[in-house]
Amino acid sequence: MENNFENYQSSTHLSVVSEADRTAFYKKTYGHVAAGVLVFVLFEYLLLQSETIVNFMLSMTDGYKWLLLLGGFMLVTTYAESTAMKTADKNKQYLAYAVYILAQAVIFVPMIYIAMYYMDSGTEILQQAALVTLALFTGLTAVVMLTNKDFSFLKAGLTIGFFIALGLIIAGTLFGFNLGLWFSVGMCLLAGGSILYQTSQIKEKYTTEDYIPAALGLFASLMLLFWYILRIFMSRD
Predict the structure, then answer these.
(1) Angstrom distance (rounded) from CA 72 to CA 17
(2) pLDDT tens string 7-56
(3) Burial zone of 60 (CB within 10 Å; 0-12 exposed, 13-18 middle, 19+ buried)
(4) Taking CA 136 as the corner, what is the angle to CA 131 and CA 142, rounded to the nearest 5 degrees?
(5) Considering only CA atoms, which of 235, 223, 217 is closest in space to residue 43?
(6) Which phi-psi region, left, alpha or beta, contains residue 180 (left: φ > 0; alpha: ψ -120 to 50)?
């Protein structure tokens, strides 16, 4: 615990460190994002092996149950993000990250199960959606890194957009209407904007020891993008 505190004390804000130190931070951050994706795939595979879990999650997609599930997911997200940011203990940060990845894997179970077992080209759809998501994530990240542009102006629009989206999701669930393709497209734009914003804010928000919370935030935006890209691909089948 003492060593963790000393490491935290010796950390330096990214905005004032050398280019080499900043590059090392980026490598750690995106390495942890990649590791998060691999752990997500492992968790998803294991969850899909359990008929009990699959049936339970499918039953939770109906009406208010889905809202309860989303509420629980939001609580886990809040816990993971606050824990990762507020503690200097790397073990606790990794635990928070792992819990969040597991929560993502759980909430993806119904959609991935339906894609794999109820659609003719389910495996192909998953592969295509994953490739498009990774390509977009890489491209958006490259835009920020290569141009060094500040995308902080997106914050207000993203906040308003996510609140509107949440309201539409709640209304659609309660009143039983399908939000449709254009909603998914809009959510992809919001997720893309979130990636731009978070990437550009990394050096303003974090210290050299904050690569785990930085990775968690980027992973969250990546999974949101994957969710709605997958929905778009599934709507074509």
Answers:
(1) 38
(2) 444 467 776 777 787 788 889 999 999 999 999 999 999 999 999 999 99
(3) buried
(4) 125
(5) 223
(6) left
